[in-house]
């Protein structure tokens, strides 16, 4: 199915803080629920929460277990299906390896960000790339003040930013929703 | 400017709960920040938080004051501009009147929802309607389990739902982001 070769990675390290220092941010449960629901809505292959912090990994595993298998799955079943798509990994490389194992081709990485990047690809070009159904794509979103330059430089592609009207500070949750709709939503509407 | 005649109303009453009982939901501050940022990104005229509950109104006014004029405006100025777009009103009618006073024509109401509605309009048709620059549009989003039938029936238009792939439970924050992008984002990308 269209979309099933696309994966979202929500990166908590390495990202910038507001002073452009490289940090590990805390996991926000709103991010997880919102992005998981978007991933399910658009038929994605999976959603990786990327954090090296042991306390955050344990928190995430508890949240997922509660909604997917615990009492939460009965209380609110609309959370079960999306959270079934969530995986936790310690590094971007670990997520990448996990995806690549499932496909004939190695995963390609696509970085995103709110500012321009020389040589970035547009949404139309990324839609074309996704047509190559045997290749999985790991699309990376930075929390905090965004993915580091090194992560962008090390990706296969950097996606063009969503252009605001003089204001350029969408929450990562909203950016993921809009970008998935641009890539996989019905363009004829 | 394109978009300035569009207003979002986030309705906390009257909406359905999961048993289809009509209730007043609590305000979620994540909704306010995320939707205000989207409203600012796409150049909207304003964002109305609609709740009849006095405690919620006071909470909202405190949050807005903190980020727009208080210490928050210095700590994180990227919240100041979006929250300047937020107004609190007790009813949908009150929001409607406040908007209508600012424009030559009366506001037209557009309801949204996750399920189909007979006679709903598509995104392309709504984009055309927005071209009528002297008419303001109040687009209503329901919290909880959505706007009541009565609110939909009493609106001038009901917008077609975002079609998921067998899963139809986007958070209201994500639905607003996607719909604003479909209405006001660059369609040529």
Brief write-up:
The structure is a homodimer of 189-residue chains. Helix content of chain A is 38%, strand content 16%. Chain A has 189 residues and is of the alpha/beta class.
Q: Quick check: average pLDDT of chain A?
A: 94
Largest interface between protein chains, with number of residues from each side: A-B, 37 and 37 residues
Number of helices of chain A: 8
Main sheet summary of chain A: 6 strands, parallel
Give the termini separation of chain A. 20 Å
Overall geometric form of chain A:
globular
Uncertain runs of chain A are none
Using only C-alpha atoms, the radius of gyration of chain A works out to 16 Å
Oligomer: homodimer
Helix content of chain A: 25-40%
Structural class of chain A: alpha/beta
Beta strand count of chain A: 8
